[in-house]
Structure formats: C-alpha cells, structure tokens
Amino acid sequence: MKKFFALLLSVMLVLTISIPAFAAGTATVACTSANEVKQGETLTVMVTVSDCDPFKSMAVTPSYDKKVFELVSGEWVLTEAMLTNFNGTNGAIAYSSAVTKNGNIFKLVLKVKADAPVGKTSVKADAVIKNGDTTIPVKVTAKEVKVTCSTHTFGDWAVAKEATCTAAGSEKRTCSVCGVSETKEVKALGHNYGKATVTKEATCTENGVSTKICDRCNKKATVAIKATDHAFGEWETVKAATCTEEGTLERKCANCDATETQTIAKIDHEFGEMQVVKEATETETGLKEAKCKHCSEVEQETIPCVAPVAGGVDDYLLWIIIGAAAVVVLVIVIVVIAKKKKKD
Ligand SMILES: [Zn+2]
Ligand SMILES: [Zn+2]
Ligand SMILES: [Zn+2]
Ligand SMILES: [Zn+2]
Fold it and tell me: Whose atoms come closest to the Cα of 165: which ligand?
C-alpha cells in the first residue's frame, strides 16, 4: 500500500511537472492605455488576457512606479464571477467552474502625480491564473507610457519637411523638458511664376500664347492671349452712290488684310428748274424740261398750245376798214368838189 501511494505520488508529481510543459498554453497578460499622459492627468489602463485556457481563478497585481502614479481605482470587468475583490494592491476573481475569458479583465485607473518625473515609465499587471490546482503559465507584457509636462516648454518651430510648390510640408517644435514634439502642416507654396513671355503673338482672329516658368520647380504654365480683334480704320467711299446705283463704303484693318464693306443707298434725283426747250404756238404744244443734277434723267412737261389773241386782231382790221372808208370818203369829196368847179 505504501508502495502504491509512493507510485501515485510520483505519477502526480510527473503530471504536475509535465502538464504545464505539454498540456497548457501560455496566456499573455498585457496592459493597454494611451501612449502619453500629462502630469496631473489620469491614465486608464485595461488589463487584458489572451491565449488563455479555461480557468477557475485569477489574481492580478498591478505594478507601476509609485513616484509617477497614484492609484485611483481598480476593478474587475469580468462578469458572472463567484467572487471578485481588489484591496488596492491585489485583485482576485473566482468561478465555480472553469471559464474561458479572453479580452479585457481588469480596469486600473491611475493618476499621474503633478510632480511626476517626465519621460518613459511602464505599467504591468502580474497575474496568477489557475484551473483548480493547475497553474496556467503566464507571460506578462508591460505597457510603456510617456509622462509629459502638463504645460510644455516648446522651442521654436523648425522645418521638419520642406514644403514644395505642390506638396505641403511640416514644422516641428519640441518641449525642452519632456521631449514631446508637435508638428503642424505648412501649406504647399504654390508656384512662383516669373514674368510671362509671349511665345506666340495673338493676331486679330487667333489667340496667342504666353509662357511663364516657376522659379522653384521650373514648371511651365501657358496662358492664352486673347485675339486682338481687327483694328478697322475709318469708312471710306470706294464707290459713290448714284441715282441709279448703290455705292460702297469700305474700311480696312490696320493689322491684317481684313476689309469690311457697307452699301450706300441710292440717292434721289435732284431736278433743277424747269426750262422751256420749245415754245408753244397756237397750233403746237411746247415743252419744258428739268435735268437731274446727278444723272442724265430728264423730267418733261408739256406746254399747252397758245390760245388765239381775238381782241387785237379785230381792232387792227377795224382800223384798216375805217382807214379805207375814210380814203373812199375823201376821194368822193375830192371828186364832188372837182365836178362843182368845172361847172362854174
Ligand atoms: Zn513637455
Ligand atoms: Zn513651382
Ligand atoms: Zn485685322
Ligand atoms: Zn438723277
């Protein structure tokens, strides 16, 4: 019987040694938090576990520099546990049966002391995880945190990356106390073109081109020069309008061969005074004419026949008759007188 117990004990011993080596995986207990924290501010650290086999109990002991941090709170975030506690130094959790829990397990809130030394410090949580009597091996990973000034003492901005014509650059300044640096963007500079030179003259009808070059990156840019439009001179009469034909006005561009023409409307005839070219008689009509001052057009007007002069002609005949009668009477008187004398 003693031999049996001795054997059993040795088997158990072998098992307890060999189980961690062969059966159980190694759990990783890590801390996650912000990478930087300022003096006087609080830092929330989440303790996580990964690759952890089923377990029944777990104990965590947060570990941090007491010159840097003071504890605010610590609490388990795992649920459905049989018991949980945290006494300010150690925390424990227990389940009635084995559970598999990976992810966040414990939340630790630390406050950075106002006079904490700036620079890097680390936070970790040591852990003991057990499944009954079996201890699950744990690998602990520390979280490095940088403690920075509550108010930085920055130096001057210095160029970190030169801005170019097209790409933004950056400037950086560093705190002389904690080494924290800040960067800010510097806008792309834009091209710095020199004077544009005409590479193709504009004409009256075609656009020209001027070219300019950036003195930083040599980028070429072209700008259109607007066509100038014709520079027409005064209208000139190339053909005067007449009474019968339209005239033409023309103007020429001073810079090219372009011409423009315009029609001058025909002018009206302009007749002068009517002039008698043939007198009318009693039997034939006369003719009056007026000539156009500008062309050969003639306007004619007929002069009606002259009416006979009735009164004048009658008087003339009357006087001839009277004269003739008087002569006859005189002759008779002379004859009568002559006959009387003969008788005497
Ligand atoms: Zn600083
Ligand atoms: Zn440029
Ligand atoms: Zn022109
Ligand atoms: Zn005319």
Answer: 2
Q: What is the DSSP letter of 154?
A: B
Q: How many CB atoms lie within 10 A of CB 217?
A: 12
Question: How far away, in angstroms, is 299 Cα from ligand 4 center?
Answer: 10
H-helix or E-strand spanning residue 335:
helix 310-343
List, as ranges, residues with CB under 5 A of the ion ligand 1: 149, 152, 175, 177-178, 180
- Which pLDDT score is estimated for 320? 87
* 161 neighbors 184 (Cβ within 8 angstroms): no
**Ligand 2 center to 165 CA (angstroms):** 5
* pLDDT recorded at residue 311: 56
Between 2.60.40.680, 3.30.420.40, 3.40.50.80, 3.20.10.10, what CATH number should domain 2-148 receive? 2.60.40.680
Centre of ligand 2 from the C-alpha of residue 187, in Å: 13
Q: What does the pLDDT read at residue 17?
A: 45
Domain boundaries, the chain: 2-148, 230-267, 269-309
Question: What pLDDT is stored for residue 308 in this prediction?
Answer: 75
The pLDDT tens digits for 75-113 are 999 988 999 999 999 999 999 999 999 999 999 999 999
Query: What contacts 202, CB < 8 A, 6 or more positions away?
Result: 208, 225, 226, 227, 228
Decide: 183 and 160 in contact? Cβ < 8 Å.
yes
Phi and psi, residue 338, nearest 5°: -65, -40
Strands (E), 81-133: 83-86, 91-99, 103-112, 119-131
